[in-house]
Amino acid sequence: xxxxxxxxxxxxxxxxxxxxxxxxxxxxxxxxxxxxxxxxxxxxxxxxxxxxxxxxxxxxxxxxxxxxxxxxxxxxxxxxxxxxxxxxxxxxxxxxxxxxxxxxxxxxxxxxxxxxxxxxxxxxxxx
Amino acid sequence: xxxxxxxxxxxxxxxxxxxxxxxxxxxxxxxxxxxxxxxxxxxxxxxxxxxxxxxxxxxxxxxxxxxxxxxxxxxxxxxxxxxxxxxxxxxxxxxxxxxxxxxxxxxxxxxxxxxxxxxxxxxxxxxxxxxxxxxxxxxxxxxxxxxxxxxxxxxxxxxxxxxxxxxxxxxxxxxxxxxxxxxxxxxxx
Lengths: 127, 189
Fold this sequence. Notes:
Chain A is built from 5 helices and 4 strands; from the N terminus they run αααβαβββα. By secondary structure, chain A is of the alpha+beta class. The model of chain B has no long low-confidence stretch (mean pLDDT 84).
């Protein structure tokens, strides 16, 4: 089996994506290919590359982490901030962030969580 | 010898008689010529005997004695001379030794003084170094203590903030905080 570059794989998956949803068959196909070519460790990088390709096409996947979940007004605000044709949310609830929000998009990260601020205070300790 | 004495006595007796008869000059002087001759011969004989057998032995003994005395005198003289030389030599050695001792004492004093001075300087330098090290150590410890206090304070503040905010922050306030963060981020962009 020829070894495909991550970019080619990402472009193939992005081409099959509709409304921000990757068909289940494509996901299974991708998983089979990675397992067969012993490249399962590259999965996070492949996913990131897919997001990059989608972002280049104006379809941004935003990974949003909050302590209590997102409501619509917040999503609207995030969409306005990202300023893309389409924004897809990958939501995560993590109480350890205490409060605030962390938004990760391809090439950009906004970490406005309280835990990040506290950690930055901690890291500012005199060494 | 006994014969000689007997003859001598006989001759003297006969001589006395002839002497009385002759009555010459020698008589007036009280000298018996025969006795005189005999005595002279005896004397000469005695002198010869003495000279032949006694004097050489005596002279030899005397010479040996004289020689011994001379040698003793010479030895004494030599000993005296040697003693004088030895004394002079000893005196010179003593003088030299005194001089050397004086030099040694002077040198020792100088060296001791130098050593004491050097030791004092070294002690002062060492004491100063110890003081400097102690001050440096104290300063470092003070700085470290301040840093530790600062860090502990920050950690305590962070922990306290984490707990207080975690308990008091509700969804409404959190949403406001998120909106504010997003707006602030938008302003920055």
